[in-house]
C-alpha cells in the first residue's frame, strides 16, 4: 500500500471542474494529482526512475480517497484579464511612424483585449472535532518497486500546488494511511449507483499523452471517469428515528443553462421535468414508478417518483431561486432504466425543459462538487423540526372556521404523515403560517394553486412541524408531494 497525502496550506482548493468553468472541483480528482506529478517531473530533473514510477502509477486501479464531503463554495466572480499577444510588433526602422509605435504599444497589458476568467474555489469545512478538513489522502492497495517508490516520494515533495497556483499544497508519500486521514470520509471507487460521484482517473498511456500534448502546446484532454461512493463515517442511526417511504439517496440535477426560475414556478417546472423523463424513457408506456399511473388514466396508489425543487433558501442571502432538482424514488426501488434515462453513451444526458414562451431550463446530473443547496444531506438530515420550502397542498378545503379550521388542518397534516409511512402520534405540534420559516421562500400567495380534476383550486399553506422523534428526509407531504409542493427542510440553528 502507498498513500499520497495532500494538505491545502491556504485552507481552500482553487480548481475548475471539467464540466463547467464556474464550478470548483472537490474532492480533487486522481487525474489532477497525476498531472501535478507529471508537471513536477517535467519541471525538474526528468529522471528515468521518476518516469518509470509515473508509468507504474498510471497502470494501477483507481485509488480510494479520504476527504471531507462538507464544503463551502466561494461565489464565482467574472474577472476580465488581458489576453496573450495576438501579433508580433513590426520591426522598427529608421522612419518610425505612429502606426509602428501603436503596434508596439499594443503588446502592453492595458492595450490588449480582455477575456472573462473565473476562479472557482471551495473551502473544506471543519464540522467534526479532530478532523483536518484540508487533508486529502489518495490510497493505492499495491506497493511499487523500491526504486519507483523512492522516485515517487521525491516527485511528491516537488508538487507545490494542486489546481490553480493560488492553492499551494504540501504533498508527501507514506506507506500507511495516517491516523488523521483515517477519520475522514472514505470515497470508494467502482460504484454502480446512479448517484455516485464521477472523478477523473489516469489510465495506461496517460504519461505519454500528457507529454505529447505539452510538446504540441495543447491543454490536457479529459480521460477515463470512475464512479465513487461516499462513506461518510456517520454513526449508526438510532432506533428512535423514522424514515418515510422515499429513499434518502436522492438523484440530484443541477441547472446548467437556460432561464433562472423562482420557487413560484415549481408546478410548471416539475410538470415539464416529468414529461421530459417520460419522453426519453426507453420503456413505453413509462413504468408506474415514473408515470404515477398503474394504467392509462388511472393514478397509482403506490409511492412513485417525486420531484423536489432545490432552491436557494434558509439563509440571509436566500432568494428562492431554483438551482436544481432532486428526484426521490420509493425506498429500495432498483430499475435498470435509470441509467439509460440519465446517461447517453456513458456521458450524463442534458435534460431540456421547454416551458413555451416563458423560457427553458437545462439540467444535468450533479457532480460531487456542487453548491450547498444541492447537497442531499441538507434536505435529508434527521431532525425533529421541519418546515415547508414550498407550501403544503391539503387534500380538501377546511370546512370550519377559526379554531375548528386549524384543528381540521392539523388532522390533515397527521394523515399526510401516515401516507408517507410515518407512525401515528409522532407529531408534537403543527404551525400553519402565511410565510415560510426558511428565509427566501415566497409566501403562500406567491404560489399558484394546484388544480383538482374538477377544476377547483387546492388550498395550500406553509407548515412547520415538530415531531416527537427525529425524522429522516426527504419529507414531502400533501396532495402535491409528487409535484414539488409540500417540500419540507429541516430547521437548524436558532429555529431548531
From TrEMBL:
<dbReference type="InterPro" id="IPR019089">
    <property type="entry name" value="Cas_GSU0054"/>
</dbReference>
<dbReference type="Pfam" id="PF09609">
    <property type="entry name" value="Cas_GSU0054"/>
</dbReference>
<protein>
    <submittedName>
        <fullName>CRISPR-associated protein Csb2</fullName>
    </submittedName>
</protein>
